[in-house]
Amino acid sequence: MRSSDKQDQLEMSPNAVPSSDSATTEIGDVTMNVAFIETAESVRFTEMPPLGFGGHGGGSAQWIEPAPAAPSACSEQPALHCHLVSGKDVEDVRCLSEIILDNRENVTNHWYQQYLLHFGDNRTLSESEFKRIFGDALESDQSALVAGAMIEHAAALGRLGVVLAEHRVPLEEVIATIHLLKTATVDLLPKDPRLIAIFDKLNNVRIILLVSTYFRSQSAIAGEKMSAFAREAAHLPAAERTRFHGIVGASAGMRKLYQRIEAAAATRGNLLIVGESGTGKELVARAIHAAGPRADRPFVALNCAALPKELIESELFGYKRGAFSGAATEYMGLFRAAEGGTLFLDEITEMSPETQSKLLRAIQERAIRAVGSTRELPIDVRIIASTNRDPREAVSHGHLRQDLYYRLQAVTMTAPALRERREDIPLLVEHFIAMFNRSLGRTIAGIEKGALDALREHSWPGNVRELSNAIEGAFTFGTGDLITLEDLPSVIRDSRVEVGAILPQRAEAGDGGVSTLADSEREMIAIALKNAAGNKALAAKRLQISRKKLYAKIAKYGIVLN
Fold first, then answer.
1. DSSP character for 238?
2. Are residues 168 and 290 located together in one domain of the fold?
3. Residue 126 Cα distances to 111, 129, 181, angstroms
4. Mean pLDDT of the chain
5. In terms of C-beta density within 10 A (0-12 exposed, 13-18 middle, 19 or more buried), how is residue 296 classed?
6. Continuous H helices in 83-192
7. Do residues 375 and 334 lie in contact, with contact meaning Cβ atoms separated by under 8 Å?
8. Residue 245 domain-assigned (yes or no)
9. At what angle do helices 127-147 and 104-119 cross, to 10 degrees?
């Protein structure tokens, strides 16, 4: 098979039937299985159902140079991606790749500046991380294109997908960053529309290969973390569980949540998860998926708040080539990427009403239509949505369509705030210490009592995510074998007060020390006000509420300031 023929057509299709001509690679903990199906003029680059993902078992493999294969099945297989890159295209853009390689450092610097401008303080990667990860990937990617080595090109992007998943870079950030490569190179490249079109086409191929490996890697990482806990939980009575499919907690509220997760996992109905930011709504969604009969199928997550509203529709439903300016190739969309599994839509109230309407139709008809297409495609996907708003208030304020809410609210779960389950804090601290010991190569033995008391007394407006960040920060700045009070963030050190001096002891009132939600809220506000020395603006900032709302709460609970 000629090398020019091998590059003549580049296309990915998870449903294609492989020929005997195949190449398989193991990248980190993620296995990519790639088939090459040769015709007289082209080769189809087909994504096989991955090992350990989509109903296949695990295993290891290596890259094998493909041998000639029978051409008969090629034309009969439905193409899901249709990303066609001819051998001539690769040859024509070789000059662009050489320019980028010669200016790799400048391109990487400019790329990071675009990334910083686009994501600001919400970016996941530091400057050094970005330049190391994407600088190395850029060199491997462009070197493979110069050499016309499309297998190595795919392998390089696969490695990048694994690294980005391990760094917990959100999928939408990954996609947007690849799009920013064009902006980073615009001043270097010739102003030739045909070459720019090929460059765009290759960029879309990069996204497809990255997304494919990212999903598998994310699934492998989550599976590795959850497997031991899941085995432990499976042998425990519901009333004794301290962990469940990656969720940590032994309080009565959490054990009740575990039971609801099990019940929901046994069905295929769509559902809604409600909870404050940082409570672990995505973990609940993943647990529902992992505890169900389709745990080996894809779990695809999209944060609707992280993408511009006008882009969410094309990300979900995909688009046809030429559907809009810049759509140089076809994109399958996340619905089809999640086929047979679960699509998790985080912060669904940030989705535009128009897209919510199309989502409702997809749920009702179990079919989607890509942007620019006239044909509907059947889907088999479970929808799990989440919101940090009160869903009824979101409906009344126009953030959530009423008909969509009624479709989702039949099964609703609430992820409890950390302040409502303070008894779980020692268990969570133990979990995070073990996790960061593994990931950071440390040997922290535990936490001092004073530091743990401070964690118990903090109001936790950021919930479990804030606790995780606090422990990670203690790993960064602490030097001893134990986490001390001085290792914790100042906002937590400053919040350590004697709660009994602010509020009457509830146990003396005969309620057994069990607080209501109103009691907890009143206590949290009183603590914040005392720590801020009565400064309402500072207290409201720490509570992450408006000053007007704080005044209303003070009046509601009759809090008296000294």
1. G
2. no
3. 13, 5, 17
4. 77
5. middle
6. 87-92, 94-102, 104-119, 127-147, 150-166, 171-185
7. no
8. yes
9. 130
CA–CA separation, 113 and 450 (whole Å):
42
Same domain membership, residue 481 and residue 403: no
Q: Is the pLDDT of residue 217 over 50?
A: yes
The C-alpha atoms of residue 391 and residue 400 are separated, in whole angstroms, by 7
Model confidence over 514-530: pLDDT tens digits? 456 677 777 888 888 88
Q: Is the same domain home to 194 and 340?
A: no
Cα distances from 228 to residues 54, 193, 429, 518, 530, in angstroms, run 21, 53, 18, 37, 43
A 10 A CB-CB count for 547 gives 13
For residue range 391-423, list pLDDT tens digits in order.
999 999 999 999 999 999 888 999 999 999 999
Residue range(s) defining the domain that contains residue 9: 3-216
Q: 232 pLDDT exceeds 70?
A: no
Give domain status of residue 228, yes or no. no
| 121 and 107 both lie in a single domain | yes
- In whole angstroms, give the CA distance from residue 441 to residue 446: 15
Looking at residue 18, what DSSP letter applies? P
- The tens digit of pLDDT for each residue in 111-136 reads 999 898 888 878 888 888 899 999 99
pTM: 0.54
In the numeric block, the tokens 């906002």 are attached to: 491
Structure tokens at 242: 């301290």
Tokens of 167: 């760094």
